[in-house]
């Protein structure tokens, strides 16, 4: 029975207790929204459990070669996948993730960013956001959950799709903020947790509440995982209340849930 503690950012995190072999390699695929807390929490799980995390990163959806569904369709190994709940449910239906292994981890919100030192448009109300989109010279959005919402639903709701879509750019296999930081785009929209770590940009703010899209990111165990108990322990660690402070510092809101059964 694993009974150790995790030291993360100066605080002790109690390890979830599961019986599983130590010294195994766990293949983890995570989408961008959970990447920041994953990189903070993962090394501590490795140190305490004796297991090694083999990490792969990609979008929750879409046809980019590194998107998680594309990786799985090529047969890349995955003990744990972490992605938007809608996409995770599709993987369960397709037989690529074990039914009943799904655990909601965090809620993520969308924000707008500009290159550091450039003017910030006003986006505090829906009408201000709408006008900012009309005034912008160029806008970038992700190829995953936030970008799908922006390009296929939000602009249509605002009645400005015909005017705005021609000056937008869908960013594949790269953070939207990185393209904004290089000066290639005036505005960029992506999940808060994916914008915060990018140097050279400034956060204008989250989308106004009436048009905000909160996406739940969840974890599941790969259907072909050879280490399901170790995978379950990793997911329980990410879902544990002790990890919530780390998660919040990365711009995400942890999902509170009953204690997982051992």
TrEMBL record:
Record organism: Roseococcus pinisoli
Name the record gives this protein: Substrate-binding domain-containing protein
PANTHER family linked: BLR4797 PROTEIN, MOLYBDATE-BINDING PERIPLASMIC PROTEIN
Keyword terms of this UniProt record: Signal
Signal peptide: 1-21
Record flagged with keyword Methyltransferase: no
Coiled-coil regions, chain positions: none
Pfam family, one: SBP_bac_11
Gene3D superfamilies: Periplasmic binding protein-like II (3.40.190.10)
